[in-house]
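User: Teach me something about this protein's shape.
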Amino acid sequence: MQSASEQSEAAEHPARPARPEPPDHDYPDHWEADVVLRDGGTARIRPITADDADRLVSFYEQVSDESKYYRFFAPYPRLSAKDVHRFTHHDFVDRVGLAATVGGEFIATVRYDRINERGLPASAPADEAEVAFLVQDAHQGRGVASALLEHIAAVARERDIRRFAAEVLPANTKMIKVFTDAGYTQKRSFEDGSVRLHLDLEPTDRSLAVQRAREQRAEARSVQRLLTPRSVAVVGAGRAAGGVGRTVLRNLLGAGFTGRVYAVNAALAALAGGAGGEGAAAEFDGVPAYPSVGAIGQTVDLAIVAVPAERVPEAVADCGEHGVRGLVVLSAGYAESGAEGRERQRQLVRQARSYGMRIIGPNAFGIINTADVRLNASLAPQMPAAGRIGLFTQSGAIGIALLAGLHRRGAGLSSFISAGNRADVSGNDFLQHWYDDPGTDVVLLYLESIGNPRKFTRLARRTAAVKPVVVVKGARHSGSAPPGHRVPVTRIPHATVSALLRQAGVIRVDTVTELVDAGLLLAAQPLPAGPRVAILGNSESLGLLTYDACLTEGLRPLRPLDLTTAAEPADFRDALAAALADETSDAVVVNAIPWVGENGATEFGDGEVLAASLREAVASAPAPTKPVVVVHVEMGGLAEALAIATSTRPAAQGKGGGGGTGSVTGLRPTGTEAQSSPAAPADPRPATAQAPAGTADTVSTAGTADTVSTTGAVPRATTPTIPAYPAAERAVRALAEAVRYGQWRRQAADPGRVPEYEDIDEAGAAALVERVLGSGEEADPRGVTLDTEQAGELLARYGIAVLPTLPAPTPDAAVAAAGRLGYPVALKTTAPHLRHRPDLGGVRLDLASEEQLRTAYAELTEVLGKPEELQPVVQAMVPRGVDTVVRSAIDPAVGAVLSFGLSGAASELLGDTAHRLVPATDRDVAELVRSLRTAPLLFGWRGSAPVDTPALEEVLLRVSRLVDDHPEVVAVSLEPVVVAPRGLSVLGATVRLAPPAPRTDLGPRSLPSY
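Assistant: First, the predicted structure itself:
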């Protein structure tokens, strides 16, 4: 495809006026970006400069004649010197060129030329430009052109270009599809044998959705490439046993990795006749060892780097130059070690990305994939059992603890990642992968920092809509990010962050133990339909503890059913079956203590018999619609037996087994087999994802022993596992999280809408903001607080009326103000130490006459200070109601936040303030108002009249719209907002403006910059 400004030279079209040499402009380094492409690899996008002449010529020589024809509409075998000059000299305003590079070489280019209405070269205020692409044939199909279009469109908008025009040959269907699939508003016509396209560059809901869908596919694919390599090289494997590299090599082999494994040790160069020597110089643990990745002579998909930090750049270059797709860097000595390490980390990321590689780490513990390739590229000595839980941690120590805890309780994993400093690949990338991974039903995250909170919230909300996301946040109260983590600093309290995460559907827990507790329940059991909980067991006291715990967690427990201490496993089975069939409950908690036998002796060791009976009751239910959890005290073997859906025991007889009905469903691996074979994964319950067809095995339960098919695959459970807990409080807390998450899932199907108000004057508000703050480079970077008149004018543009306030520096001025407003009036002080503190006596209400006003004025000045200190004002009285506070502020970490609470010291001391992310929907603000502990005051508490909550919700929505429409509005405070039985009154308002920070979540796709 070509631009019209090139046709005269490329295809001998009529000559056009020559464009003057572009003036010098500063290099726009903020246009540089790393992007993830469709196949999971990365590329660097940057402006083309005069220094790129040789790169451009080399790039063009590698483009096929067909692609050149599509670009220039004519045979164009080589670029002339004049072409090279024109394509490398830009003014970065009216003429811009961008290149996608890998390894420093061009793989694609795009450029635009600003034109006027006749299609001739132009400058501003012309707002249209012709755009043209060229992608090297070897890189077509990787999504390079789509990524370049996003970035060149962002550049054009920055330079006040609003439309792109493109001319494409009809046979160039790939390029036509790039434009038509972008989601922009467009027009299409056929002229002179070519397709003419016009794109409106204003982002639309569809263009943003397209961009985010491409981002998800690309980032998920990049993670998949790391988790499913066909070959792995351990760089830094020592010749002697021990050491990090040799440990990882041993773990790879011990897990049964299905691909090829190589060891790399630079010290072997002498044995191989130099680094370029061919053939393995040695063997480590039966694996061929080479002096370099290049010496392997075979494709390597993943490299595990375990060499000292000072030798990592050499290893990365070796990997990049020989086609390695991804790196896991275990080496320490990076940002966690100080300023020098931070610079070393930046160089590491830049170097790896220049080769199109992604990095896990540095300072990482490693990655594990129990499915597909059975990859244990970590320091974990034992391969976890296969299961349906995806686990991400930012700490190796916490990762070890979580792996051990899940293993002890019989839980299996689909994948595990301990990312260390997460300089490149982060939890966001794995959320992209797990979102549509059919092998993962529950996501567990241990996070010490969130690098891109806006993106994390967006991805977590989308993932939580299809499968649970459970998060425990470390370093909550340290006030700073952990060493090695580059993150924006948040100014809002930890409790607010937690509330916002819950709004996004994240199950937010406080400890690693709670993370495991919730994960076990969600991976094994269906989501509860409501908060009603049936309680049964053989201990009345344990039943009462469970009942109390349910009330504490906001659940609705039914009266506990006491089976007495004489109850046998068959009694538990029958009671559980009845509870599962009872429509008055949504979940069941089973309490179990050792029961008393016929001879009066306490039986401790028959937990497997009880487990079989409980599983039989669950299996006999018509459909698995209720979660079941077990609380056990000193029941030997019960938790372990419930954690698996298979057993070595024959079908039980007599008191425990229900007459040999075949409740045993499979064979449990024992001994060394249990260490090398993954446990049978549980059926996915809360999620929509299912295992790939053909993975389940046929299991027979004929006779008294189980027979497993001999296909070599792992036996799959036909009965779900039942999570067991050693304390009622832990079981109920996990169940309560499942209840709240289930409610969120049901509500997420209808998230509400952002209402449109016809009386909003968005253009007028924008003009006011620009007039007060300034625009572009003229804007005051420190920001400005609007005066009372300006704040009232801005809010009025959004339909929010602020009650007039008149200054009263003297008693006479107060009387004059009351005369203008009309009696009765209120006299208030506005001094900072008294503002919004009626409890300190700075407010006098219902002053019905001049005499009362003068008396109140004298009292205030006598008790609290001089008028110039108090800054008194007069306001008209409004109908009485409940005093509330509406605020919104932009936090650098999480973005714009809408807050609501009741006015007064008591609410502030209790922290009774609710928060929602902007833009808020009608459902959001309804929940916001009702989520306060003091919310009953708004709805007629103790006989008072209910206030006008619809009017209050409308004000909240209007403030949300104001902040969302104008990012320069960095803070709004309406205090107090008096909500009466009919209507409300805004008595005070503060608005602050400042130049907005860049919105990385709305710009073109890019990786975090280094």
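Now, about its shape. The longest strand covers residues 105-115. The radius of gyration is 34 Å. If you'd like, I can walk through any region in more detail.
User: That's plenty for now, thanks!
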